[in-house]
Amino acid sequence: MSVRQISRILPGALALALTGCTGSGDSFLQPGGPIAAAQRTELFQIFGWTMIAILPVFVLVPLLLWRYRYRNAKARYTPDWDRSAILEVLMWGVPLVIVVVLSAQLYRTTHALDPVQPLASENPPLRVQVVGLDWKWLFLYPDLGIATVNELAFPVETSVALDLTTDTVMQSFLISALAGQIYAMPGMRTRLHILADAPGSFEGENTQFNGTGFPAQRFAARAMSAADFDAWVAQVRADGQPLTEASYALLAESSTGAQAQARLGAEGMAPGVLHFSTVEGDLFHSILHRYMHGNPVPPSAQPGAVGYAPETAEQTR
Amino acid sequence: MSDPDHRSEARLYLAGFGLALTLTLVPFGLVHWGLMQGKALAITIAVLAVAQIVVHLRFFLHIDLSRQKREDLQLILFTVLLLGIMAFGTLWIMGNLATRM
Amino acid sequence: MTDPIFGRLDLSSLSVWRAFQDPSLSELIGAGAAMAVILGALATLALLTWIRLWGPLWRDWLTSVDHKRIGIMYCALALIMLARGVIEGVLMRTQQAFGLHGGFLTPDHFSELFSTHGTIMIFFVAMPFIAGVINYVMPLQIGARDMAFPVMNQISLGLTATGAALVMISLVLGEFSTGGWANYPPYTGADFQPGPGPDYWIWSIVLAGIGTTLSGINFAVTIYKERAPGMHFLRMPIFCWTVICTSIIMIFALPPLTVAALMLAADRYLDFHFFTNDLGGNMMNYVNLFWLFGHPEVYLLVIPAYGVFSEVISTYSGKRIYGYMSMVYATMSIAVLSFCVWLHHFFTMGQSANINAAFGIASMAIAVPTGVKIYNWLATIFRGRVRMTVPMIYATGFFYLFVIGGLTGVMLANPVISYQVHNTLFLVAHFHNVIIPGVLFGLLAGYHYWFPKAFGFRLHEGWGRAAALLWIVGFSFTFLPLYWLGLQGMPRRSASFGDPSFQPMLWLALFGGMLILAALGSLMLQLWVSIRNRVQLAVPLGDPWNGRSLEWSIPSPPPAYNFALLPQVLDRDDFAEAKASGRAYAEPAVYEDIEMPDNTAIGMIVCVCSTLMGLALVFWIWWLAVLSLGVMVVSLIGRTFRTDLSHVIPAAQIAAEHRAWLARVRAAPAVDRLAETHDRNRGRAMPERPFAAGAAE
Amino acid sequence: MSGSNLHPGLNLGARHGSAHEGAETVVFGFWIFLMSDLVIFGLVFASYLTVANPLGMAGGPGPADAFDLRSIFVQTMILLTSSLTFGFATLALRHEKGRTVIAGWLGVTLLLGLAFLTLELRDFAHMIEVGAVPQRSGFWSAFWGLVPLHGLHVALGCLWIAVMLAQMALLGLVPVVKTRLLRLGLFWHFLDLIWVAIFSIVYLGGLMP
Questions:
Q1: Is the Cβ of D64 closer than 8 Å to some Cβ of chain C?
Q2: D28 at the B interface (CB within 8 A)?
Q3: Which partners does chain C have (≥3 C-beta pairs < 8 Å)?
Q4: CB pairs below 8 Å between A and C: how many?
Q5: Which domains does chain A have, with CATH numbers?
């Protein structure tokens, strides 16, 4: 069996073993889309290749320690032996070859899985703008005119193009079962593409600590059939409230999804979720540009800041 | 200033001063009178600055590559290497991020 | 706004007062910790007064410029801070084990815990421990009388102690940052954390960092200029090579941290816009600068630990280190490569695939020299005669666990994987997996190995074995489950979580944390038992392990001047060769006077003044900041006007001491390695060659 | 120079005996310190370059609004001349021309250093007047983090010269004073090196047509 074959079979076996014991479907070990699946494969391939260098250590340590224990007078003792050309070549050569192989693979997959690239799909792509707030995620659907908090719905087998920023401190956006994470930062726009193969609900989260409500900053990424998605859009339009400058100012206060529900009088929705039927103006770009304008953003106008008071800071918007 | 060693060493300092002076006057003149523009000017300024740094190292700090003990030479070159990695890396990364966001 | 005398320091800064106002469990734990600090300090002061140790403490320790005593003080500082760090770690594991939808700590308290835990463990445990071991061992190994700059060495220690003191004071006054040990803005900017927390972080890091940079300069110059005659670079023990590499990192990787932290300070104090959200600030550059320091930093920590393992494995295998040149090249290439990989800490910031790939490949490249080192150690064991002493138990644990850390390191070096597991518990598991088995096990092995050199008696073997096994097993239980949780997407720094399936693994991790607590307890008990049995454990003749390098050729503990006459080095592993060829323990023909630097209080002045300055800056007490800086500068400059700062030890005294010791060595029976850990071992080793040579073929 | 160079840069020379021998360690140590300091400057330069663009200036004043090329030119000339005068001081030390000559050249250097600082402070005052303050934008933050950092070094250099003048008067030219003068020389020339980078990158680069 060639090394190549081993490296193919071993990951499969490991995948079985590992996914057998996973508890929830919110990890890339149980992928819901092509990116996460490719990331899982990559993980197992690295595992397989590095084992070539690692297994000898695992095996040799006990063998050597036992064989050359002090009381074993039968073992050979060569106190001055300290070099061997063959060993030297192996010691440098084997890790080097492994790293070269892994580097080639790394270069290929890093480019292939670059989060900026749209994903191949027959359906037209969907654009979603993501705004990280203290301690919730706001999703804007610019082509549909709706918005949600802590609920990201999208049709299956569709490339979803996410533009991300935040209106507070730095955050990191991760839906593990679909794709990797990307930072979201105020005044900057990062990009990520996701695609789900089949309907399902996947957990999304912020992984960059941003204050006391951090553990609550989770949301559901819901992949649904095209028909279900249309129905969902209609429902958001029906049960949502308009997202105005005033309601955004309330929403942007440091609060978890549940607290924001109470603040905006939207109890009765799913836990932590808010729906907005309309969005006033180009909210995403006005958030983005607020930090690029050359005007100071004092704490009173800075969501997440100590002393954020949007009522008194109207003039700076 | 009677002894000859002293005089020749002082002359070296004066030579360094003259070179540094020239290498300062030229870029200031270029900018002041607007004799060159854009990229060409930027490159000229950079080249003249590096030349002047070499002049300072040679004539004022007496870094003379041929006569030093190797370990001291290594220190300076090594610093330049590491600083190069850090500064170039910073500009590369931050520049790339700026164009993408 | 702020008081001209007390700045922003007021009653509510006292954590005890806060607990009095709001007696929740979380505040009570905080107040309890504050009380522990205060009472501990008072008890220490009272004890010192009661047994009248102030005089000796001041004369022999605090004002000493002896590299050996400074080294011991560094290690003592590290062990005290280790206790706090471990307790905080266990507290966090407890919180998370009960953290399904809640837990008993407030999120604020939890975030303070992970911030202080990280800061303490890196800057005030690992770094001082390393600085301590290097300080003690390196000059002895190269045959030097002291560091190149003994007074600067004392000042470095003072500045490190300042940083540690500030972190300790933050328990009592105000609160520490909640931004983690990396303290990323804008979260730590004035808008989001206007309190004193991030300022504590800034000043403790900056002041200690200056101390570390000075240490690096000191180590490098000592090795370059103070080697004994004949000690060519290629005759130095591997440990000294690792010190060169580490000091390179101290000299060149601390500046980015200083720059980043001071820029953050400018943002917070003077309303600059380096890293703010608005007005053209660029927080990404902080991340960039921090990791320009942060990545070399972990190699700063682990490279000397590699050096310790090299010494330990070679000694306890009774063999030359295998592949000396390989080791040197590997260490050097790790040191240089460590400067080329910092971006892998932020693959997910949005830069192009080309940049990610370049830094990913550079990161993986470090695995090559690291792998070479591991194989070299195995080849050193091969055809040796191995004694499974405590340091070798640590080394064995290191082999297994560190290799796992290396495997996950290669995974994290891959941007594709990093996109998934970055910022999760997988990352937490990975860096604990390199830092604990790599750095801490190495340092504890070194502690065990060199303790008899420093104090003249061995550490108790049984408790040492218990501690080592508890560390290894405890580590595995604590951190291996975190890999699984990280792969499941559990983010780091979460005070609570919502997925019940995480719970079993977190309980397992808590169990491991308890074992680590027991390991820490065993270490303390071991120290206590060893001190009580110091007469049976004494090894005054200086060579309890059949050592191979110069430090074993002198008495334990060594005299202030280290070597009666600077040794003439003829070989690599010179002392082993000397013992084999019979030239060890020779009496020099002539003894000479030795000039040694005088004790000085300058290090303590710097320590006290900079602590006051740091505190004053944290609480905006401007007059105190200016005053303490002024006193510090004036005393430093004032000292340079004195020229009579050394004393001479007469040759006759040295001759008498050295001859007395030599006579005891010659009179003592040499013990073989089977008796190494028995009371018979007085520090005179029997060469083991004859026994093995016949049995070999 | 004689063949007995123990460290890079100007050596005292063998006739200075123990001062020459002792210089090997301390000068090497000081070189390492300077290299560490160089990394600090290098990173501050790199940070400056990352914000030297319209985004970093955030609509605030740009270099052309605040820099005065003529003043910078005068400062450059002063600093360059001070390097020369310091060089003469070191030569006088090396060739044992006596305390007065050394102190004379050091005094001239000190005056030049103070003149440089005065002009620089005047420039800073002008910048504050036109609103080029660090609170205005990331660009000006980086400028105020970089150029005054060099100014602070010059001020420390001036303090150091003053201290050395006092030590020469009180202690005479003992070995430790000689090696300190040697290191002070390295420091002073190093500052001029940094200034070359500052006037090229910050001022000329900023005022390029």
A1: no
A2: yes
A3: A, B, D
A4: 304
A5: 3-112 (no CATH), 126-316 (2.60.40.420)
How far, in Å, CA of C394 to CA of A35, rounded? 41
HEC readout, A75-133: CCCCCCCCCCHHHHHHHHHHHHHHHHHHHHHHHHHHHHCCCCCCCCCCCCCEEEEEEEE
Residues 6+ apart with CB under 8 A from A229: A153, A154, A155
A190 inside 8 A of chain B by CB: yes
Q: Name the 3-class secondary structure at C596.
A: strand
Q: Cα(C595)–Cα(C648) distance, rounded to whole angstroms? A: 4
For β-strands A136-141 and A146-149, DSSP reports them as antiparallel
CB A131, CB A137: distance < 8 Å:
yes
Tell me which residue in C339, C342, C351 faces B96 most closely, judged by beta carbons.
Answer: C351
Residues 23-52 of D with CB under 8 A from C: 24-25, 28-29, 32-33, 35-37, 39-40, 43-44, 47, 50-51
A136-141 and A126-133 strand pairing: antiparallel
pLDDT tens digits, C282-340 = 999 999 999 999 999 999 999 999 999 999 999 999 999 999 999 999 999 999 999 99
- From A292's Cα to the closest Cα of chain D, the distance in A is 7
- C626: Cβ–Cβ under 8 A, 6 or more apart, which residues? none
CA-based nearest residue in chain C for residue D142: C274
* pLDDT tens-place string over residues C190-239: 999 999 999 999 999 999 999 999 999 999 999 999 999 999 999 999 99
The answer for residues whose C-beta is within 8 angstroms of residue B81's C-beta and 6 or more apart is none
Query: Which of C365, C382, C420 is the closest to A180 by Cβ?
Result: C420
Closest CA to C396 of C461, C335, C514, C476: C476
Q: What contacts C171, CB < 8 A, 6 or more positions away?
A: C15, C30, C33, C34, C37
Among the CATH numbers 2.60.120.460, 3.40.50.1950, 1.20.210.10, 3.10.20.30, which is that of C53-600+645-690?
1.20.210.10
Per residue in C81-129, pLDDT (tens digit) is: 999 999 999 999 999 999 998 889 988 899 999 999 999 999 999 999 9
Taking the Cβ of residue C643 and every Cβ of chain D, the question of whether any pair is shorter than 8 Å is answered with yes
Chains that touch B (3 or more CB pairs under 8 A): A, C, D
The band of A23, judged by pLDDT with boundaries at 50, 70 and 90, is very low
* CB < 8 Å to A290, chain D: none
For D58, nearest residue in chain A (alpha carbons): A294
pLDDT band at residue C697, thresholds of 50, 70 and 90?
very low
Contacts of D60 in chain C (CB under 8 A): 279-280
Residue C651 has pLDDT above 70, yes or no: yes
CATH class of D14-207: mainly alpha
3-state secondary structure of C140: helix
Kindly calculate the radius of gyration of chain C based on its CA atoms and give it in whole angstroms. Answer: 25
**Alpha carbon distance C44, C48 (integer Å):** 6
| Lookup result for tokens 């004035």 | C190
What is the tens place of the pLDDT at every residue in D154-209? 999 999 999 999 999 999 999 999 999 999 999 999 999 999 999 999 999 999 87
- Note which residues in 468-487 of chain C have CB less than 8 A from chain A: 487
- Identify all chain A residues contacting B100, using CB atoms and an 8 Å cutoff: 116, 190
Identify from D84, D85, D101, D193 which residue to disrupt to test chain B contact, counting B C-beta atoms within 10 A and taking the largest count. Answer: D84
Q: Structural domain boundaries of chain C? A: 53-600+645-690
Cα A257 to Cα A206: distance, rounded to the nearest angstrom: 13
B94 touches chain A (CB under 8 A): no
pLDDT in tens, A166-222: 999 999 999 999 999 999 999 999 999 999 999 999 999 999 999 999 999 999 999
